[in-house]
Amino acid sequence: MLARPRHGACWLRPSIRGVTSTRPQRTRRRDYAVLRLVFEFAVGRVYRPDNPVRAVKKPPRGDERQANVLTPEQVESLLNAAKHHPMLWLFILTCAELASAQTAKPSGSGGRTWTSAMRG
Fold first, then answer.
1. pLDDT tens digits along 12-22
2. Between 63 and 97, where is the model more confident?
3. Sign (positive/negative) of CA torsion 100, 105, 111, 114?
4. Count of domains in the chain?
């Protein structure tokens, strides 16, 4: 028989212990899945007669993550801060261009394009 932790399930995240939490649904679902697999393993090895996680309702799917698109002013500020680091500058510019293309807003990069950015 396995020894129980001294402090019960205090190592569990609050969302698993039933405490109201602001943790994302994705985290709650991942925690649930890990615990379910651990107990399934224990049942398979005959460490436990049953899987107690089966009695707990699986957390619902949360909203999909939303991209955090920078404003044109934020992009300009980052580009100015990285002007002495060419690879970082190019990375920032690439991310800004990709974000503006994905949001399908012509002004997503503040009118800044690859050619205007390369000119400085």
1. 555 455 555 57
2. 97
3. positive
4. 2
